[in-house]
Amino acid sequence: MAITDWPAAERPREKLIELGAEALSDAELLAIFLRVGVTGKSAVDLARDLLTKFGCLNGVFAATEHELSQVHGIGPSKYVQLQAIFEMSRRALAEQLQSRDVLNSPQAVRDYLVLKLGSLTKEVFLVLFLDTQNRLVASEEMFSGSLSETSVYPREVVKRALHHNAASLIFAHNHPSGIAQQSQADELLTKQLKQALALMDVRVLDHFIVAGNHTLSFSERGLV
C-alpha cells in the first residue's frame, strides 16, 4: 500500500508536522528523505530495508555508493544527498560547539563525536581544541590505525595545541569493535598526553571512546 493511502495520522510527513521530528522512528525519518518507494514497497519499507542492511542510520550514512546501489531504488543521487545531509549535521553540531561552552553542552559533544567517528571502520584519534571559554576552535583527526601510547605522539598533539592557541583539549577515538570500554593502553595514553600538555599549561578536559552510537567518558569515570 502506498503511503498516500495510509491514514493521515500515520503518514510520516503529516506525523512530523503534527508531533515534531522527534516523534518519528528512524525508518519514518529516512522515508521522508527517500520520498518514494519502489514497486511493491513504500518509502517506509525501503527505509526499513536500508536500516536492516546497514544496521542503523550511521551505517546508512557510512555506506559507500557501491554498497547503497545494491539496494533496489537507491542510486547515485540518493548517495550524494545522504552525504550532504550527513555533512550538514556534523557542521551544525560543530557550529553549536563553536558558539557555546562545551562543558554546558555535553550531549552536543557526544552527538558530534558519534557523527565523526561512530561509523568508521578503522581507529582514529580525534582532538578537539578549545579556547579559554571552552568553545571549539578546531577539530583534527591526528592519528589513525591501531592506537597505543607508541603510535600517538604527545609532541605532535602539543604542537597542534600551541598552533591553535588552545587552552584545553578533548580527546576522542573510536572502537570499530563496537565495545565502548577503555583499555589499559587507553588510560596510559591519556595520562602521558595530560602530563605533556600540562607543561604547556594546556588542560585535558576529557577523553571519549566512541563505539557506534555509544560513548564512554573518561572524565565521568574519574580517569582524567
Write up what this structure looks like:
By secondary structure, this protein is α+β, with helices and mostly antiparallel strands. It has helices at residues 12-19, 26-34, 43-54, 57-62, 65-69, 76-99, 106-117, 154-163, 184-198, and strands at 124-130, 136-144, 168-174, 203-211, 214-217. The protein has a five-stranded mixed sheet with strand order 2-1-3-4-5, sandwiched between helices. A hairpin with a 5-residue loop joins strand 1 and strand 2 (136-144). The longest helix is centred in the middle third of the chain and has 24 residues, at 76-99. The radius of gyration is 20 Å and the shape is elongated. The mean pLDDT is 89.
How would you spell out the order of helices and strands? HHHHHHHEEHEHEE
Please state the overall shape, judged from the principal axes of the Cα atoms. elongated
Q: Structural class of the secondary structure composition?
A: alpha+beta
Average residue-wise pLDDT = 89
Global Rg: 20 Å
Total helical segments: 9
Percent helix: 40-55%
User: What proportion strand?
Assistant: 15-25%
Cα separation of the termini: 55 Å
Question: How many strand units?
Answer: 5
Q: Give the strand line-up of the largest sheet.
A: 2-1-3-4-5
Model regions low in confidence, pLDDT < 50 over at least 5 residues: none
Largest sheet, described in full?
5 strands, mixed
Oligomeric state of the chains?
single chain
